[in-house]
Amino acid sequence: MTSQVSSPAEQADGVDGTDGSVVGEQRKPSGTKDVRRLDRVIIRFAGDSGDGMQLTGDRFTSETASFGNDLSTLPNFPAEIRAPAGTLPGVSSFQLHFADHDILTPGDAPNVLVAMNPAALAANVADLPRGAEIIVNTDEFTKRAMQKVGYAASPLEDGSLDGYQLHPVPLTTLTVEALKEFDLSRKEAERSKNMFALGLLSWMYHRPTEGTEKFLKSKFAKKPEIAAANLAAFRAGWNFGETTEDFAVSYEVAPAAKAFPVGTYRNISGNLALAYGLISASRQADLPLFLGSYPITPASDILHELSRHKNFGVRTFQAEDEIAGIGAALGAAFGGSLAVTTTSGPGVALKSETIGLAVSMELPLLIVDIQRGGPSTGLPTKTEQADLLQAMFGRNGEAPVPIVAPRTPADCFDAALEAARIALTYRTPVMLLSDGYLANGSEPWRIPELDELPDLTVQFAQGPNHTLTDGTEVFWPYKRDPQTLARPWAVPGTPGLEHRIGGIEKEDGTGNISYSPANHDFMVRTRQAKVDGIAVPDLEVDDPHEADTLVLGWGSTYGPITAAVRRLRTAGEAIAQAHLRHLNPFPRNLGAVLKSYDKVVVPEMNLGQLALLVRAKYLVDARSYNQVNGMPFKAEQLAAALKEAIDG
Questions:
Q1: Tell me, what's the pLDDT at 111?
Q2: Where do the H-state alpha helices sit in 362-496?
Q3: What is the Cβ-side half-sphere exposure of residue 591, based on CA atoms within 13 angstroms?
Q4: Exposed site from 24, 157, 326, 371, fewest CB < 10 Å?
Q5: CA–CA distance from 371 to each of 390, 510, 611 (Å)?
């Protein structure tokens, strides 16, 4: 990592989620423009879904990561493949928070908004604090475009933006002018305006440019004219910032060297980290990886990524529907693979019968649920945590399934390894609950050393494991390990290990079909005991001041909760924090932890599903704080709610 320049605002270090950047000392660069040092910046790129805002944000993020800042991102895009141009439902945005110290969220409110059209401005201006900078593409502010989003008069001229630092820039015109030497139509040239904007913002915040130039050359290698045009637009945007009088100041955010342990880092999204975690788990188990999946937002990226890694023994099967996807995965598990199926909430509903079959057959299977807003089709591109009860109980009969939930995009890697450990060790399907916020968001990730990865080696059954009263040695497919209660994993085709499979109840030990009431009672209780007995770490509690109030979270609420807790502690409040990775079974010390606090607050992006579970199991008066608007919590909002709980 590059060395860190100390923050000018030491009192703000580590306090995530503040509304604006702290401006420190000002110095003169070698040129004629001022350079101001900031400790953090929150930028939001917004435009039509066809304006390339996700690509622009991703490139800015990549260069920020290579520079050494800590960062967190929030891509936000419409569910429609191509919403009507210039309309509010068609607005796509990408928010990036980067800093010279440890941060945890994409930020509550942008310091800078880049609005490519009136719809982008109208959809996002309410999120801006007073004094924020707004860079608008004036070429798109035509009468018709403004009428589409309800502007009776131009907001650039009617005084409604007087509380902001407005930078009107004719991005389209400048881009077309910069590309006039290329043999492109005006429409083709206009498509590069996002690269012009990227160049301008790269100049404003001193971002490296080499990576983006290399990326553009690679992306358009088969279209050298397009590659050259995008490079020209990118450089023109940089030069515009350098020469125009409208931008008299550029900004510097030093690397966050102190925020990271020594190691090799890369920027990673949750879905990419999950894919890498699954590959690593298969290698650590020395098993082929099989993915049976049907494309669904926001899980499809895992299928796309795993399909690129046949060299690691990965096989991907894009099935005709959700049921076929998990059916193929369960067949692969029976055949001796590390089997995975990926989906979102609607797909879990369709897969529920086969998950129950996996419970009955007691085979290792990973069900990855990238949660999104529901019910039904709901909000395909928005985030939610509302599948916890479905994961816990969403099957017929008593069909317990372990549940693991990552807390950050990078943590998805470790969560995948942990889910694989449980599935392989205990011969059970495992649910992994990520969500759209983690899946699409990104942060720096330290690439682990190989010796840091767990040993997941599996021993398949090789021969008879039971002796009958007459001395005959036989194979019993449901004879259990006394420690884990796992049954043997017998690969089909192994001589002497033939046995029945299916969903009808099995006889203990022999695996024969059994309708005996006593046997069914025993098997149901044994399967539950197997899940209850899974070894999971005790819950760790962060409580430096012996607080009376505990905030308990799970999954992607970790960042906003931790940012809110930091705010409160900085303000002198005592509050404890704990975050669950294992939701079934719960850590064995959870009950004792909950009962040691006078107040327990559970923030969730649902209507109180974890709170319901802990209230029922531990008889504690856990208080819910809930949000179901398709967006992650804001740190300021959570801090206010937690302060009210402390004082109440």
A1: 97
A2: 388-393, 411-426, 436-440
A3: 6
A4: 157
A5: 11, 39, 18
Specify whether the CB–CB gap between 119 and 90 falls below 8 A.
Answer: yes
Local structure of 376: helix, strand or coil: coil
Q: Which two tokens stand for residue 497?
A: 């290990």
Q: What is the dihedral angle through the alpha carbons of 138, 140, 146, 152, rounded to the nearest 10 degrees?
A: 30
Angular region, 277: left φ>0, alpha ψ -120 to 50, beta rest: alpha
* Separation of alpha carbons 149 and 87, rounded Å: 6
Contacts of 525 (CB under 8 A, 6+ apart): none
Virtual CA dihedral for 371, 374, 375, 380, nearest 10 degrees? -90
Element (H, E) at 95: strand 91-99
Instruction: Write out the DSSP string of 211-253.
Output: HHHHHHHHHTTT-HHHHHHHHHHHHHHHHHHHH-SS--EEEEE
3-class SS letters over 551-580? EEEEHHHHHHHHHHHHHHHHCCCCCEEEEE
For the record, the structure tokens of 251 come out as: 């900004």
What sign does the dihedral 391-393-396-401 (CA atoms) show?
A: positive
User: Is residue 435 within a helix (H) or strand (E), and if so which, with residue range?
Assistant: strand 429-435
As a whole number of angstroms, the distance between CA 45 and CA 93 comes to 5
Residue 218: Cβ within 10 Å count: 9
Judge whether residue 491 has pLDDT over 90. Answer: yes
245 vs 249: CA distance, rounded Å: 9
Q: Provide mean pLDDT across the span 450-457.
A: 97
Q: Which two tokens stand for residue 474?
A: 């036989």
Q: Is 8 buried (19+), middle (13-18) or exposed (0-12) by CB count in 10 A?
A: middle
CA trace torsion 475, 480, 484, 490 (10° rounding) = 30
Alpha carbons 646 and 648: distance in angstroms, whole number: 6
d(CA 475, CA 466): 6
* CA dist., res. 213 & res. 26, Å (int): 30
In this predicted structure, what is the pLDDT of residue 25?
Answer: 36
pLDDT at 6 exceeding the cut of 80: no
Question: Which residue has 């890369």 as its token pair?
Answer: 266
Whole-number Å distance between alpha carbons of 377 and 168: 39
Q: Strand pairing partners for 584? A: 403
Strand partners, 602: 624
The mean pLDDT of 529-535, rounded to a whole number, is 98
Q: What is the pLDDT of residue 82?
A: 77
pLDDT at 541 > cutoff 60: yes
CA nearest neighbour of 425 among 582, 565, 580, 530: 530
> What is the share, in percent, of the chain residues with pLDDT greater than 90?
92
Q: Compute the mean pLDDT over every residue in the chain, rounded to the nearest whole number.
A: 94
Q: What's 350's DSSP letter?
A: H
The span from the CA of 615 to the CA of 595, in Å, is 11
Helix (H, G, I), strand (E, B) or coil at 516: coil
The Cα 25–Cα 245 span in angstroms is 22
* Average pLDDT for 246-260: 92
203 and 250 Cβ atoms separated by less than 8 Å:
yes
Whose tokens are 């125009």? That residue is: 244
Count CB-CB contacts under 10 A for residue 376. Answer: 7
* Cα angle: 132, vertex 134, 139; to 5 degrees: 170
Q: Mean pLDDT across the stretch 156-174?
A: 96
How crowded is residue 495: how many other Cβ atoms within 10 Å of its Cβ?
Answer: 6
Q: How far apart are CA 399 and CA 110, in angstroms?
A: 45
